[in-house]
Structure formats: structure tokens, C-alpha cells
From TrEMBL:
Example of a GO biological process term: extracellular matrix organization
Subcellular localization(s) per the UniProt record: Secreted
Cellular component terms (Gene Ontology): basement membrane; extracellular space
All copies of domain Thyroglobulin type-1, residue ranges: 47-117
Protein name (record): Thyroglobulin type-1 domain-containing protein
UniProtKB keywords: Disulfide bond, Repeat, Secreted
Principal subcellular localisation of the protein: secreted
Disulphide linkage map: C87-C94
GO molecular function per UniProt: extracellular matrix binding; heparin binding
Coiled-coil zones: none
Organism expressing this protein natively: Plectus sambesii
Amino acid sequence: MVKYQLTPTISGDLRPVSQWATSPTGSSGFFLLEGPTAVPVAVEEEKTDCRSQRAKTMITHEQNPEGGVYVPTCTGTNDVLYDEIQCHKPTNYCWCVKPDSGEPIAGTSVQYTTPDCATPAKPVGEIK
């Protein structure tokens, strides 16, 4: 979904200001802008579903396959949910996540084994 936001091009007291911009002819630079105007700027809302994040991460991984990039695994209709257990293969660490957001669940990260996501993590101790 594309949202629009208004980018003000003048200061609050209506004096002209300069702003980095691209002209209709394609040249970029600082331009003197006058008058009470606002320019609509398309802002792409970042998608946080698993499929979108996986696609974004795969681009990075393909550019640097030896970089150790974590690539999420997905499930559900259209792969929008995160698998409950996520793993970083190069380090052999796995952890539990919230399937709707991919947010890691504290205290579930383990190495060389599979975490038990059904049992809530026990608090390690009080932080002082």
C-alpha cells in the first residue's frame, strides 16, 4: 500500500527556503522554493509479513551468499506467517518467534538443538 505524506517546502513564517529536489526536467540540486506549497511524496509502507521479509532478505543473501544472512522461514496461507521456530543455519542457533510478527521470544534461543516453544521461558534473573 502506498501512502502519501506532505513535505512542507516553506518555513512557518512563509519566507522562501531552499530544498534538495529534482526538477521536472530531471536535474537535482538545491532549489529556491517560494509560496505556501507542499509536495506529495509517495511513502511505501514496509511490509512485515514473512513472505515479504523473506523476499527482501533473499536479495541480500543472493548478493553475498557467504555473508551469513538470516533468512526467515514461512508458513500459512500465502506464507504470511512465520514458522514458530526460526534458525540461523550458519551458526546453528534456533529460537521461537511470534508467528504473526516474527518477533523473537526471549529466552528461547538454543544452539545445536530445537527449542521447546510450548514451554514458556523461565526468567534468568532480575536485572539490576
